[in-house]
Design goal:
GO terms for molecular function: heme binding; lactoperoxidase activity; metal ion binding; peroxidase activity. The protein has 342 residues and is mainly alpha-helical. It is 41% helix and 3% strand. The strands form 2 sheets. Strands 1-2 form a two-stranded antiparallel sheet. Strands 3-4 form a two-stranded antiparallel ribbon. The protein is globular.
């Protein structure tokens, strides 16, 4: 995506998925989250987030996917605590510098939001909450039924619970271990999601986030060439689609070429992704893995035939994910700058 530069008045300067046990966020933490947490302490908080996200989307439609992805990658490592935003230091390599996170983007949009919120309500709104609200706003702005006013008067696909606090630890090693991988098989995906208190339905519906954005050739290279000793190409990948991808990705180390997750519709959030998965045209092996389990396959088919159901369930699952291992109350901190500890 083109790097978004905030307009005058918003410019800023800053210093340069495998746990197998089922870990569910404790009630005492996510029980403190609620819709409208900042209603008294910072009434304009969500409006400020929405305004800056809207400006970024108007400037570059492709910013929606990176904003959504930031929230996912945050929640799957140490829970939704804003740790993905921290810079590495001389003594610590942070999450954002882990290999799976090197293609993360839109940090500048989050920083612009934080700067404006600090001007309005100093030390009040956490970076973790900014990620959650910005993700909601990004996906809402990419959903036609929302932008046409057919979904809700507020223009939101779902409501966000807020009240998270920011974590003080960020580890690249943990990110490399815990983040879901594009080559994961179904059982590994199920275990990764279970570790965040998420079930089969959450797995399938949150995979629908792949309706937005682009990927890079290394994420699918193994599907195209030397998949296994027996198969040169991933047998779960449509051959005609594979030939098209091979023309786009001629170099296994090409981190520049971008491949659309949903060809021709990568900036529109809808249920087209599930039709592609059914046709063996999901970009990742992990997408096609959803067809290898009876329950997840049934959900894929269901969402393919009912976009309204998908959009409703997506909001529910985003709220579920947003509760993962959160910090609340007196835990953690409210960072003044998202990239560095107070």
């Amino acid at each position: 995506m083109t790097k978004w530069v905030p307009p005058l008045g918003l410019r800023f300067s800053l210093p340069p998925l495998l746990l197998l046990a089922a870990v569910i966020a404790p009630v005492h933490a996510y029980g403190k989250l609620k819709v409208g947490f900042y209603r008294q302490s910072c009434p304009d908080a969500e409006a400020i987030v929405r305004r800056i996200v809207t400006m970024a989307v108007e400037d570059d439609l492709t910013v929606t996917a990176p904003l959504l992805r930031l929230h996912f990658h945050d929640c799957f490592v140490r829970g939704c605590d804003g740790s993905v935003l921290l810079n590495s230091t001389k003594n610590n390599i942070a999450e954002r510098d882990a290999k799976p996170n090197l293609t993360l983007d839109a940090f500048n949009v989050i920083d612009a939001i934080k700067e404006k919120l600090e001007e309005k309500c100093p030390g009040t709104v956490s970076c973790a909450d900014i990620l959650a609200v910005a993700a909601r706003d990004a996906v809402s702005l990419a959903t036609k039924v929302v932008t046409k006013g057919e979904w809700s008067e507020g223009g939101n696909l779902y409501e966000v619970e807020t009240g998270r606090r920011d974590g003080r630890v960020s580890s690249a090693k943990e990110a490399a271990k815990e983040l879901p991988d594009s080559f994961d098989e179904i059982q590994k995906l199920i275990k990764r999601f279970k570790s965040k208190g998420l079930g089969l339905k959450d797995l399938v519906v949150l995979s629908g986030a792949h309706a937005l954005g682009n990927s890079h050739c290394p994420s699918l290279e193994k599907r195209l060439r030397n998949f296994t000793a027996e198969d040169d190409m991933d047998p779960t990948l449509d051959k005609t689609y594979a030939a098209t991808l091979k023309q786009q990705c001629t170099n296994a180390d090409d981190n520049v070429t971008e491949v659309q997750m949903v060809p021709g519709r990568s900036t529109t959030f809808d249920s087209t992704y599930y039709r592609l998965v059914k046709e063996n045209k999901g970009l990742f092996h992990s997408d096609e893995a959803l067809l290898s389990n009876g329950a997840t396959k049934m959900l894929v088919y269901g969402y393919m035939s009912s976009e309204k159901r998908f959009l409703k369930d997506f909001g529910v699952s985003m709220v579920n994910m947003g509760r993962a291992d959160v910090l609340a109350g007196s835990e953690g901190e409210i960072r003044r700058t998202c990239a560095v500890l107070n």
